[in-house]
Design a protein that fits this description.
- It is a single chain.
- The protein is of the alpha/beta class.
- The chain contains 4 helices and 4 strands.
- Strands 3-2-1-4 form a 4-stranded parallel beta sheet, covered by helices on one side.
- The chain is globular.
């Protein structure tokens, strides 16, 4: 495929497509009810910004701070949040980098 053909192909953000599906399957919220999301491995904040457009108040975490709203948190350790603090957890391209994925997944579930 030549370079020109690649430029004519529309860009599809599969992460947002998957996220839209996940968000659409979440519980229904009453008008004015706060919807809280945790973005694990937020990197530059693309999913954080998208979740915000969907009405979520987002807490973003990563091992390094790549944007000002991101908190530096190591997902290999106990997360500094209470049980059931979030309505939705977004975690993409992270699990394969964890020392103990089972531990971290248990943390995300609580």
């Amino acid at each position: 495929e030549d370079g020109e053909a690649r430029h004519r192909t529309p860009h599809v953000n599969h992460g947002h497509a998957k996220l839209a599906l996940i968000v659409s399957n979440c519980k229904e919220f009453n008008a004015g009810e706060v919807r809280r999301a945790l973005d694990v491995g937020a990197r530059a904040g693309h999913q954080t910004r998208w979740l915000t457009t969907q009405g979520y108040t987002v807490t973003s975490i990563d091992v390094e701070q790549l944007f000002s709203e991101c908190q530096v948190v190591n997902a290999d350790e106990r997360l500094p949040f209470g049980d059931a603090e979030f309505d939705l957890v977004w975690c993409s391209e992270v699990i394969e980098h964890l020392r103990d994925p089972a531990f971290s997944l248990n943390e995300l579930r609580r």
